[in-house]
Amino acid sequence: MAERSMRAVVIREFGGPEVLEVREVPRPEPGPWEIRVAVAASGLNRADLLQRRGRYPVPHGSPADIPGLEYAGVVDRVGALVRDWAPGDRAMGLVGGGGYAEAVVVHEREAIPIPEGIDTVAAGALPEAWLTAWDAMVLQADLQAGESVLIHAVGSGVGTAALQIARASGARTLGTSRTPSKLERATALGLEVAIEGGDTDWPARVMDATGGRGVDVVVDLVGGAYVAGDLACVAERGRIVVVGVPAGRETGIDLRRLMSRRASITGTVLRARPLEEKIALAREATRRLVPLMERSGAVPVVERTFPPEQAAEAHRMMESNLNFGTLSIVWG
Amino acid sequence: MAERSMRAVVIREFGGPEVLEVREVPRPEPGPWEIRVAVAASGLNRADLLQRRGRYPVPHGSPADIPGLEYAGVVDRVGALVRDWAPGDRAMGLVGGGGYAEAVVVHEREAIPIPEGIDTVAAGALPEAWLTAWDAMVLQADLQAGESVLIHAVGSGVGTAALQIARASGARTLGTSRTPSKLERATALGLEVAIEGGDTDWPARVMDATGGRGVDVVVDLVGGAYVAGDLACVAERGRIVVVGVPAGRETGIDLRRLMSRRASITGTVLRARPLEEKIALAREATRRLVPLMERSGAVPVVERTFPPEQAAEAHRMMESNLNFGTLSIVWG
């Protein structure tokens, strides 16, 4: 009967971290075009905290009571029509929910091979951060070799991913964090210009560091007044991409500055995208991001892993905002 | 000696419309790569009003005391290396300044042929409005056939140009104006959904008119709080382009809305662009915009023309904001 059930971390009722519990649930079966992945590790994301509190709408078709937006593991069963995967292949990817489980079922074209040289458990918290960073910075902001990029919250999971992708792509990196120790660790990962982001003079420091020209791209994981600051230190034809707004959803912007810089501000979110876009992103990442990671020796920065029974503690650590890099749940 | 001098409208000193006067100035000679155009008409633009008051920086190499950002006329002399133009050709285009004159000299690749079917005098106020509209709506916002576009200040020179380009390109058109008579005239030009823009419920009307989906592109010639409104009625992956900010340079924006819509806000300005970009725009417009205008029977909407001696009156009319379409100075 082990085949028919599996363990998952379930939300007992909406509330604090203590509402998470490990429970036996039915093990999903792949449809004809689907693969099932035996999950080695399930990454944590801020959206999981919102979902636990009942403040995140779960996409149609995803389990409402099992959080988790990403996974990495080994394919253990494939549907009759699947061509690209076989049992034993290492796979990772995004899901709309249900990632905190021993197995996930996904369309075969949504899964991404785990880059060679990256451990399967370490890959568990890789897809959301790296795909978010790569999609925002490369596909949307069109960062080019030789350009410069400013990354806010450079010590976060998305920030450290953006930093490594930018470096591997030949771009100059500037980054902010309110936590000096995170800046030190980002510098060890290759950050070239480290700027404390707590006060309001960081745009002036960015201008200084770029000889008054400003940065070509901003990856903004902070939001609020940071976006107004981005506009003050962006180069002509600069591209600002807003990926998160923990500092606030509202900001004032100077439209004349936007015009004279000929700059753009773009908002983005991965989770709400329709299937065809998620597949397109997975295929493009397989084609370009995975080889880039393999060639550049990318390091998914894992802060700590937890057994499923300690999911509540993992959520508490994420809520504290003290982690540098990602957290994940590991299935033994 | 007529060859050595020409008439121009000159700013005597910074101030009101009365500081404009007609004066004899040296007639420019084309360099080896340049053409000289005997100007039939010189279009008026809002920037001319700012320049007259000393509040618009004149680009390097343009005359400081002769306003005018556009011209149309007939080539009367070409430099020794010019290949694409011959005396007698009808030409139009943008200049950094000095357009209010009987002759302008431009690099041969900056000039654009006047579309067949459009009168040379009517073309005088065409380049700035049509290139601005086309660049913003098509090249930057990437408006596609089958999409919808909202045009603010649809009765202005840029607005009526955007309207006609959008219709000729197979897009659905929505437009706002604070002046009901301008909406009527825009409707006669083909505007499909006319919305009074004075109050604050226009975003709701746009949502109604699009079945709750929102518009794919916004061409915003107004700025200020309109941009926050744009974000309230833009479709998923919608593109907002800010082309002017007469209603104010500051606005608050909802970054979470920007993210969930995956929308972008881009600022643009033509005048400050470097030569290579102006040439690229002129070549692309020659290749695509001119044929589109010829095929679709485009109508440059000219409100009124003035002899150079009445330049002050022309400025007064532009300042009153009552004109539907463009104003220009005609050289007899």
Automatic annotation (TrEMBL), chains A, B:
- The lineage's top-level taxon is Bacteria
**Protein keywords:** NADP, Oxidoreductase
NCBIfam families, alphabetically? quinone_pig3
What the entry lists under Pfam families is as follows:
ADH_N, ADH_zinc_N
Organism of derivation: Gaopeijia maritima
- Give the protein's recorded name: NAD(P)H-quinone oxidoreductase
Q: Where is the Enoyl reductase (ER) domain?
A: 15-329
